[in-house]
Amino acid sequence: MNQPAFIITIDTEGDNLWRNHGQILTENALFLPRFQSLCEKFGFKPVYLTNYEMAVDSAYVEFAKDVIARAQGEVGMHLHAWNSPPLFDLTGDDGRHKPYLIDYPDEIIAAKVKFQTQLLEETFQTKMLSHRAGRWALNELYVKILIEHGYRVDCSVTPRVDWRRSPGAPQGQGGTNYIGFPDQAYFINPENIAAAGDSPLLEVPMSTRYKHPAWVNSVKSLYDSLRGKSRTPSVHWLRPHGGNVANMQWVVDTMLARGSDYVEFMLHSSELMPGGSPTFADEAAIERLYADLEQLFEWLSGRVVGMTLAEYYQKKT
Known about the structure:
The chain is α/β, with parallel strands linked by helices. The chain is built from 10 helices and 12 strands.
């Protein structure tokens, strides 16, 4: 690659899933064209990693089919286990607990991946190649099932982030601990997802960096342990949360300085809608988000080339 790839990933899912809604709405589908237009202005191609409720939303389906037809983006698979068929009552109140897929029995995991894959492929008449786990939770069984269904790219790994303290099912172990995982793309080992192997599945980890140097993190860790607390070091992501353009640029610069051939951005589709997330609660917040995106994308132009996950995979094989 002459220039590093810029990969935009959008977790395409229902409105404000941070709240415990009994009914999941999908009004954010109507706000995606504005974001798509901004990406196309700079030659970038989003990957819409699509959850069940969006895959059955007519407005989203029409939008995504147009993106695919014009080769201006990609649809991939995203799976929130608590509302993706076949339904299985794991906790008695899965809508409140939002269990990780890896909390469920093995056969339910396999059935949910099969259903969502077939739904997306039948709806969009295209092979699903790219995937991100709901709530970032991945394990070896999940990876093997993805490979069985012909997926070629996963982007669930969040280097430097430990999700074990983020609860899912009360009887579960929390999320996946990604501390120590690679932060560069690697063909994943299905027997040990933290290691490279010879499988056909390319792992493309999120772009993250520690906020503080290693010695600062060590001092913080010692201080926390003396107080009887345990916290993982804070991390900057290539992910907007309002007024953090400089931090996102710093993540890009440090990743590229280390020789990375890509940087990966993420956002939730619901974050593009006023009130669709806690982060961007009203129209003013959305306008500030778009100002940040315009600034970031303008700065990235000339430094990177926009690619979908599937296109990046082709460059790596």
